[in-house]
Sequence to fold (100 residues):
Amino acid sequence: MNLYNETLATIDKVGKSIEDIDYYIINEETKKWDEGKPLTLDTHSEWQHYCEAFADYDNGYGGNEVPEQTFVVFKDKTWLSRGEYDGAEWWDYNETPERI
Fold:
């Protein structure tokens, strides 16, 4: 699986475009980004560059390869988060729940 292509396909599937993206967050437990703080990417080109590390990752069962704490946040404050089960990986689309 190619993380960049997977991200683009998911963005399209949820009816968004890259112009709808506000920012990206990456929080890898194994690396200390910005002194242990999550890394925030503000441009799509930065995200594309980050995805090069996962150009052809295995999204099947086993160990997950893309950090679980990876998010794509849209301007309307909906977001994509990484889903994982037994090493299988995917994007989940999240919306803020309505207050009742």
User: Anything to note?
Assistant: The mean pLDDT is 86. The chain has two helices and five strands.
